[in-house]
Amino acid sequence: MLQHVWTLGPRKVLIESDNVEAIRILQYRSPALPDHALVFSIKELTSRAWDLIFMHVPRSANRVADGLACLGRGASFDAWCFMDPPLEIVEALSTDLHSAT
Fold first, then answer.
1. Nearest residue to 18 (alpha-carbon basis) of 49, 47, 55, 53
2. Is CB count within 10 Å lower at the N or C end of the chain?
């Protein structure tokens, strides 16, 4: 996903995750998985000339992301691009939008 974002061109990106340890690994604050190929590839992407902000967001505070993650469980490891929100997250999206105003 980061490679796709890099290709699109934005150079200031906020990355939210409910996984505190994943954020620590990507911010070089955790010794976990130092030689893992996926971590190495992600760290190469994060070292490029862009401003990445990593933020922990509890799962309960982001129902849309949690709903999307649930859709991806058991699916192939491909990137998905939605032109319209999947029906499974429409209610959560509506709730998030109304609580933001």
1. 55
2. C
Q: Per-residue DSSP letters for 25-58?
A: HHTT---SSTT-HHHHHHHHHHTSSSEEEEEE--
Taking alpha carbons only, the member of 69, 64, 72, 68 closest to residue 94 is 64
CB 39 within 8 A of CB 83: no
Supply the DSSP symbol for 61: G
> Tokens for 6?
């890099």
Output the tens digit of pLDDT for each of the chain's 101 residues. Answer: 778 888 888 899 888 888 888 888 877 777 777 778 887 888 888 889 999 898 888 877 778 878 888 888 877 767 777 888 889 889 988 887 777 65
Beta bridge partners, 12, equal: 51
- Residue recorded with tokens 């490029």: 48
